[in-house]
Amino acid sequence: MRRHLVSGIALATLAFLYLPMLAVAVYSVNQAKYGMVFTGFTLNWYRQLIQNQEILEAARNTLFLALVSTLIATVLGTMLAIALERYPWGKRAQNFFSTVLYLPVVTPDIILAASLVVGFSLLRVVFSGFELGMPAMIIGHVTFQVAFVTLVVQGRMKAFSRDLEEAARDLYASNADVLRRVLLPLLTPGIVAGAMLAFTLSLDDFVISFFTAGPASTTLPLFIYASVRRGVTPEIHALSTLVFLVTVILVLVAERLSRRKSQ
């Protein structure tokens, strides 16, 4: 009885999470532009989506923001993970760094976004030419991405011992050789998984992008939000479906890499 109850709760939870997205996907191929009645199958809304210049511009901004911020966050996060795991920090220092590292993960996005706005306001006092826009968005995304990349790479480092590094040093390998030929190859699954996670977080982010965006740096989440306020159209359904599918694919790839990491 308890087993059936748990299974029922699990299925109900999955339905609660994914049925709304399934409904969006269904209406993205509905011939009717307005109303809730399904009148027939069509892909015209996806064709119109591809021809919409505003959406294409928002897609370019989204991909550029995600790629650049992910690249920066992956490099910084990997360096931070190696420093935290391989430098002989004291116990108090380790506890301090661990707490600081988890803060961006547990801090609500709205608090982080408001803090960034205050920081950028102070930055404009020092550099009068600095304005909200793509550079500010990249800084904002890197701020929360670094913590996720670091945690993933740290998990990978904890999964293997230092025996290979010590063996390489016994063979007179320099620190650079150990890093390039031993450590980085072992960390590659974790680095890629962290990068995929960071890319997904940037792709879906709305709050921080909303607070730091400029007039010419609209992303897909911002475009969807502005469009929904004017009324939901099948094009928005199609766009939401595509964004969701890309996110699912990236999450599945990251999950597969994480499983390989733990083996």
Automatic annotation (TrEMBL):
<comment type="similarity">
    <text>Belongs to the binding-protein-dependent transport system permease family. CysTW subfamily.</text>
</comment>
<feature type="transmembrane region" description="Helical">
    <location>
        <begin position="236"/>
        <end position="254"/>
    </location>
</feature>
<dbReference type="InterPro" id="IPR000515">
    <property type="entry name" value="MetI-like"/>
</dbReference>
<feature type="transmembrane region" description="Helical">
    <location>
        <begin position="132"/>
        <end position="153"/>
    </location>
</feature>
<feature type="transmembrane region" description="Helical">
    <location>
        <begin position="96"/>
        <end position="120"/>
    </location>
</feature>
<protein>
    <submittedName>
        <fullName>Spermidine/putrescine ABC transporter permease</fullName>
    </submittedName>
</protein>
<feature type="transmembrane region" description="Helical">
    <location>
        <begin position="63"/>
        <end position="84"/>
    </location>
</feature>
<dbReference type="Pfam" id="PF00528">
    <property type="entry name" value="BPD_transp_1"/>
</dbReference>
<keyword id="KW-0812">Transmembrane</keyword>
<dbReference type="GO" id="GO:0055085">
    <property type="term" value="P:transmembrane transport"/>
</dbReference>
<dbReference type="InterPro" id="IPR051789">
    <property type="entry name" value="Bact_Polyamine_Transport"/>
</dbReference>
<feature type="transmembrane region" description="Helical">
    <location>
        <begin position="206"/>
        <end position="224"/>
    </location>
</feature>
<keyword id="KW-0472">Membrane</keyword>
<keyword id="KW-1133">Transmembrane helix</keyword>
<dbReference type="GO" id="GO:0005886">
    <property type="term" value="C:plasma membrane"/>
</dbReference>
<feature type="transmembrane region" description="Helical">
    <location>
        <begin position="182"/>
        <end position="200"/>
    </location>
</feature>
<keyword id="KW-0813">Transport</keyword>
<feature type="domain" description="ABC transmembrane type-1">
    <location>
        <begin position="59"/>
        <end position="254"/>
    </location>
</feature>
<dbReference type="InterPro" id="IPR035906">
    <property type="entry name" value="MetI-like_sf"/>
</dbReference>
<keyword id="KW-1003">Cell membrane</keyword>
